[in-house]
Design goal:
six-stranded mixed sheet, alpha+beta, nine-stranded mixed sheet, extended, 18 helices
């Protein structure tokens, strides 16, 4: 539509007018600030001014909207005051309005009016004159801190008459990190710096008038001399430790310069982490042939691509032990900041035999120059099994087949029974019954283990599966009477005629020693606990019977009840130990009620002497509280050099000490240094524990005594 094109042209003209008038002023203001305050302030203010001019230009252009366009078009007679029809919906216009709209569009196509705003030449010229004045002021203004590179112009100096104190007019500091760090150099006007240890610092200062001599003085006595190069004074220094420094000249500067802060970032040694194996001490599997080792070394500035693996083998036993050391070079993979090293040790190639040991440790280095830092991993030990252990491992399968259920628990029996119920649909009846019977055997062995605490007789050989109508473990049977005659004597050599079962702990106990019916062993538990344990054995008996018959679903209720009783036994409050009476020394009746303490030791509590606090910090902190008391700042500085970790930031304390040196009468400086020393003071011991307030019974007791209740202290 032609009307839209006219509106866009008007907007572009107004946007261009605002930019042409405002940008020169913004640039001139930035130039003046660069001369007065430096490039940092000029960059910030100049960028903000340019963005403000652009925002104002966009705002003024967007004010030309559709209403403005209709108003301007209706000012032309050929459009017959009908420009609003161009922006109305066609379906809402009657035939007469549509005809008039076509007439207006035809007039716009034939003779379009120029709606662009006119150039305000007077305002534009005034803005340019203002920009020229600001630029001239920037050129004539003396530079205060305005150097940003090696090509900076010379500083306008004052008369160099003798006796005039120099003034710092320009400053520039470049920080060049060590090459191994891979960091780029940085430069700026700020004399405060934070640099990596080993960085090269280069200063360039300008004074007006020129001094005879200039240097940088650090708080710990170090001095960096500055050499004159034309109008500049240059100096360099390799930073190794943090500190504060001031600029000194001869003759002295008019105003004492502030202390500049120089922080140092320490390059820490690399870190080595063992990925495999997971443990430091490892037991080799029988006939193991290799040992896999994997490490990861990380460092902020990169780890050397080659590491050293130290392998030490120990052979022999007793006093005939020989050691052999080997060193291998490993190549890492991955990025330089996190390299990985792997090695597979061939045990046969190392000449290891059963019973020998091998120790491995990795040593890595970082890229620090000229002295790389080393880090070592933890020592990893692999012990090879002896010949006896290898032979025992061959019999491990047979041993497990004989005694699998000895280590079962009641909870495990319940878990196995529930798992068997879930597999009931996928197993044939014979397999299902066999597995249930195996769980019943586990239940029987567990019942016998707990029965030993009640003095029950251990069962001997194989017996028929118990049923629900049989008597419990506590009921006497014919077999038990036969096994325990009056003249038995607990020998059981051949009275029963049944052979003991191999691997059964109860049979071993019944064969080689009996603790049942022993006066002391049978009374280890109090009567209530014995009753609970007896009830648990009854439930185990019922659970065992149903399991042996192939009905784990019917055995689970009894198994759960047995588990509950066992938990009650475990939580019993007391047990009765062996009946041994206490043997107290006899009382000397002759000394009673005499008040004599001859021969008695002094039982007074001797409190350990509290270590004395640091006298330097404590005395300085107390002296700073008095406005006129002298403070030994030299001793405090020496203490700080010896204990840099006693305060959160040592440089803050150094700055506070330096400020107090410069202004001994400054009370604010004294308080600031006192606040900085507070973390270094020894903390007081905690107060005694508060006494609990009297409860309801205690209050009634105190009221009965006629003593008012005191609040807890």
């Amino acid at each position: 539509m032609k009307a839209r094109e006219l509106l866009q042209a008007a907007r572009r003209r107004r946007l261009l007018i605002t930019l042409v008038a405002g940008l020169p002023v913004a640039l001139a203001v930035a130039a003046l600030l660069a001369r007065m305050l430096g490039l940092d302030a000029a960059y910030i203010v100049g960028t903000g001014a340019a963005l403000l001019v652009a925002a104002v230009a966009m705002w003024r252009a967007r004010r030309l909207d559709t209403r403005w366009l209709i108003k301007r078009l209706n000012e032309h007679p050929q459009l017959q005051d009908s420009a609003d029809l161009l922006f109305a919906a066609s379906d809402k216009l009657n035939p007469l309005q549509q005809r008039q709209r076509r007439h207006v569009e035809h007039q716009l196509q034939r003779d379009p009016p120029d709606l662009r705003p006119r150039w305000p030449w007077r305002a534009v010229v005034l803005c340019w004159l203002l920009a020229v004045l600001l630029a001239s002021a920037a050129l004539l203004w003396p530079r205060a801190a305005g150097m940003t590179g090696t090509d900076a112009g010379t500083v306008t100096t004052e008369h160099t008459a003798h006796g005039t104190a120099p003034v710092l007019r320009g400053s520039w500091l470049q920080v060049t990190p060590p090459a191994y760090s891979g960091q780029a150099a940085s430069a700026g006007e700020k004399l405060d710096a934070r640099a990596l240890q080993g960085s090269q610092l280069q200063w360039r200062l300008q004074f007006s008038p020129q001094p005879q001599q200039a240097w940088l003085q650090f708080h710990d006595g170090r001095r960096v001399a500055l050499q004159r190069d034309g109008d500049d004074w240059r100096g360099s220094h390799v930073v190794q430790r943090a500190g504060l420094y001031r600029i000194h000249t001869r003759p002295a500067m008019a105003e004492a310069g502030r202390a500049y802060r120089l922080e140092v970032v320490v390059d820490h040694p690399p870190q080595v982490k063992v990925i495999e194996p997971a443990q430091t001490l490892n037991q080799a599997a029988p006939r193991q042939r290799s040992w896999q080792l994997r490490f990861e070394a990380s460092d902020d500035f990169g780890v050397n691509g080659t590491a050293t693996l130290d392998i030490t083998t120990a052979k022999g036993t007793g006093e005939n032990i020989s050691f052999q050391q080997r060193q291998l070079s490993l190549s890492g993979s991955g990025p330089a900041t996190a390299r990985r090293f792997a090695y597979s040790a061939d045990l046969a190639a190392l000449g290891l035999a059963p019973g020998d040991e091998v120790v491995a440790r990795l040593t890595v280095r970082d890229n620090r120059s000229p002295q790389p830092q080393e880090a070592r991993s933890a020592s990893l030990i692999l012990r090879l099994p002896s010949e006896q252990q290898v032979q025992a491992s061959d019999l491990e399968g047979a041993i497990k087949k004989v005694m699998p259920a000895y280590f079962r628990s009641q909870r495990q029996i319940i878990i196995d029974a529930e798992a068997l119920l879930k597999q009931r649909g996928s197993l044939d009846p014979d397999t299902y019954t066999k597995r249930a019977d195996a769980i019943g055997v586990d239940q029987r062995i567990l019942r016998l283990r707990y029965g030993q605490f009640l003095g029950e007789e251990a069962e001997g050989g194989a017996k028929p599966p118990p049923t629900g109508d049989l008597p419990t473990g506590d009921a006497p049977t014919a077999d038990s009477h036969a096994d325990h005659a009056d003249d038995d004597g607990h020998d059981h050599g051949g009275s029963t005629g049944s052979a003991p079962v191999f691997g059964s702990a109860t049979d071993v106990l019944s064969e080689y020693g009996h603790t049942h019916d022993h006066a002391e062993a049978a009374t280890l538990l109090d009567p209530q606990t014995r009753a609970i344990l007896k009830a648990a054995l009854d439930q185990m008996w019922q659970s065992e019977g149903h399991l042996r018959q192939g009905h784990p679903d019917q055995a689970l209720p009894y198994a759960y009840k047995a588990l509950g009783f066992i938990k009650q036994v475990q939580q019993a409050e007391r047990i009765y130990l062996a009946r041994v009476g206490s043997e107290l020394p006899p009382i000397d009746m002759a000394r009673r009620m005499t008040g004599k303490r001859d021969g008695l030791d002094n039982r007074g509590v001797q409190l350990a002497a509290r270590p004395a606090a640091d006298g330097v910090v404590a005395s300085a902190w107390q002296a700073l509280a008095a406005p006129t008391q002298a403070v030994d700042l030299d001793a405090l500085t020496r203490w700080l050099d010896a204990h840099p970790d006693a305060v959160p930031d040592p440089l803050d304390v150094v700055a506070a000490i330096d400020a107090l040196r410069q202004q001994p009468d400054c009370q604010r400086c004294r308080q600031q240094l006192r606040d900085q020393l507070w973390p270094a003071l020894r903390r007081a011991e905690g107060p005694p524990a508060r006494r609990n307030a009297a409860d309801a019974g205690g209050r009634r007791y105190l009221e009965a005594l006629g003593t008012p209740t005191e609040p807890a202290r």
